[in-house]
Amino acid sequence: MDFRNAVAMKVQETTGLDLETVNRLIEIPPQEDMGDYAFPCFALAKTMRKAPNMIASELALSDKLSADWISKVEAKGPYLNFFVDRGAFAKEVLSEVLEKGTSFGQSEEGSGKTVIIEYSSPNIAKPFHVGHAFTTILGHSLSRIYEKLGYKVVRMNHLGDYGTQFGKLITAFRLWGDEEALEKDAIAELLRIYVKFHEEEKKDENLTTVARENFKKLEDGCEEEVALWTRFRELSLKEFNKLYDRMGVSFDNYNGESYYSNLIPGIIDLLREKNLLVESEGAQVVMLDEKKLPPCIILKSDGTTIYASRDLAAAKYRYDTYHFDKNIYVVGMPQALHFQQVFAVLEKAGMPFAKNCEHVGFGLVKFQNMKFSTREGNIVALEDLLNESVAKTYELIKANAETRNSDLSEDELKAIAEKVGLGAVIYTYVKAGRERDIVFSWDTMLDFEGDTAPYLIYTYARTRSILRKAAEQGFLPEKAGSGLLNKLNGDEEFACVKMIADLPDAVKKAAASNEPFMVSRAVAQIARSFNRFYNNCSILGGDDAELKTARLALCEAVCDAIEAGTYLLGIPVVEQM
RNA sequence: GUCCACGUAGCUCAGCAGGAUAGAGCGACCGCCUCCUAAGCGGUAGGCCGGAGGUUCGAAUCCCCUCGUGGACGCCA
User: Fold this and answer.
1) Contact A150, A106 (CB under 8 A)
2) Where are the domains of chain A?
3) CA of A534 vs C1' of B35, distance in Å?
4) A395-569 is classed in which CATH architecture?
5) According to the CATH classification, is domain A3-84 in 3.30.1360.70?
6) C-alpha dihedral, A511 to A515 to A519 to A522, nearest 10°
7) pLDDT in tens, A519-541
């Protein structure tokens, strides 16, 4: 039963307004003592020609509004406030969670639909730094969120594996490459020679020419150049995959820019057929004046392709291959204009899927007290950040294990530290709206108190611990549907149940706005409300055995909800910490 | 110059298809472990919601202007 909708139906019966309107108007009061749902009466003021306050107090008297699941209806100013019966609410909500477990919040709204999510997309031969983590973590989370809603998700890693820099790399490797170093740490070695190339290039212009020639050979499919490129690509991907595995991130497709490059001629032909290509300053462009956008360059004046043409080819390929209902690009905000242009060209070319393409942008990862430059080599590699976080977590749980005399083995401690440490990093990327910049500082990244993943995981672990202890004492959580769940009507219990009940809606909103933080906020609220309850009420301590089992059911539901929620963010939970 | 974001507590951020006394976390200060994990909980302090106008019963939320910050504006991606 959906209590909100049930309230709406009651209001509909009494006022005669249509259900949709009522549903839109119903809101959650800002204060708890004002009730659980509110219907503002302003909308009725005009038709009834009465003051909203009057209408509210009159409606409050109507016996049509009573029901066994409503404990009170009262008028407060222009608002008609509904108080649900706490016991009935707890039983309803918790029963659903206990039945569904971690699949709580799942829905079928995306059933039969395919959504493509392009994310991560690092450049071959370049270090994977904390900025890449943003798209990776966001895309991973969005993938899981859409899957939760029943969509078929295709995860695409649009690798940066094409362009003139590969001519430079091939040239540099032939001159200064170290085979052994390449095998040992490919990205470090490729970065080293790349940096060296730029230094030497300043002194020797001939290098630039050689690099250009080598890129041309690569494009033309010359064996040696292709072999080197393939090797760089594979070795880089191997490194990236280590990180992906560690974070539980996966992809269905690693087609990079090089793959789509081969499809560009088809797109050019298509644009020519439609007479969209015009020459401008030597380049071939599509004019987008009617959309108030600058022209989109398709072919450079030297006749070579550019990223817009690759994205056009990629979009068409994706539609032809997957017939997507939604095609999402998780790419930084600075590229917003680029995607507007690409989508506009698709639309102009009559591609029916143009309107289903969406750019999901995100902010910059900035650095406090730090300069950020690839050339100077002083970037923060994601791996280093993860390691720092895990190391700090390890110290904390080791200290805790000692004070609590826990029997955790060294291996277990390490495994827990890995999960919690990673979770902490991931959470910093999904705790706020994605368009916000993240100001990176070791202090805030490694602060594990308050609104953080360790807080969520800690809440989970502590609750699991209670459930284990209870089982040892012979107490099991009350089952779904049990009337004893009605006993959960205290302030803290009720607040917690309400937060759990909000999770499914948060997941839907997260997908609708492509904002994982809607989920992280909901989970954090569940954890916070539970911690309040935990501090105010003894779960295992009381004499009332029935209340005890009911409260254990709440514990169980909290665990399910937190686990379901953190999973959607890509954050793992642990049984102890 | 044009366009796009953003500007809310000391800091990081919610809230913005208009609605009741603007909320969290961090930091500060004061408390709470003989009791289920103190990575926890409670309390106090802290706000002309960048500024000025307008729309109306009502604006942090919508419109106009303005200031500030960041970003994007054709042959990089």
Assistant:
1) yes
2) 3-84, 395-569
3) 12
4) Orthogonal Bundle (1.10)
5) yes
6) -120
7) 999 999 999 999 999 999 999 99
- Smallest CA-to-CA distance from A488 within A534, A548, A528 is with A548
CA A294 – C1' B10 distance (Å)?
Answer: 43
Residue A359 among the catalytic residues? no
Q: What is the pLDDT of residue A375?
A: 47
Average pLDDT score over chain A:
93
Task: Give distance CA A92 / C1' B69 (Å).
Answer: 49
Question: What is residue A478's DSSP assignment?
Answer: P
Kindly give the pairing relationship between strand A152-156 and strand A114-118.
parallel
| Alpha-helical runs (H) found in A263-381 | 264-273, 307-322, 336-348
- Residue type for A126, please? K
Q: Give the ipTM of the model, two decimals please.
A: 0.96
Beta strands in A161-226 (DSSP E): none
Assign A80 to helix, strand or coil: strand
DSSP secondary structure string for all residues of A343-374: HHHHHHTT-TTGGGEEEE----EEESS----T
| Better-scored residue on pLDDT, A418 or A403 | A418
Q: Catalytic annotation on A129? A: yes
Place of tokens 């309230």: A7
Closest residue (CA to C1') to nucleotide B77 in the complex: A307
Which bases in strand B are touched by protein, i.e. have an atom under 7 Å from a CB? 4-6, 12-15, 17, 19-27, 35-42, 57, 70-77
CA distance A273 to A250: 39
A132 given a catalytic annotation: yes
